[in-house]
Fold:
Amino acid sequence: MQISIIDGSNYFVGLLLLIRKDRKISDSEITLMQYIGKMLGFEKEFCDTAIHDILENEFIEDTLPVFTSKVLAEKFVKDGLAIAFSDMEFHPSEEEWLRNAALKNGLDEAWFREAYETAVRNQNSPVPMEAKDITVQYS
Structure:
């Protein structure tokens, strides 16, 4: 799936905002964010700095991402659920953030509940990240 730079940036920043919701960033969250950043074509140094600075970065507004397609929004929420469950501590503010992101992008509560239940069932299994199928178009 090819997406714009804006959608790619919204995807990465939206997930950064997610990982700061519980005010701590686990090693598993760092690893997954580095992977997603790489899949989206961002420089490793940029990703590492953004991940490590997100807790203190007051200049990034806590705004829900809006994507140009529901398919991309679905990928975002699924990746967000995988990241949120990766540290075995799914915080209520993470769930609220992802639910609101889904709703803001036209996905209904039933869709979110199904994605959430799937993530719960798969939380102890390696799940391929949705970002692996995304290519950011830089032209």
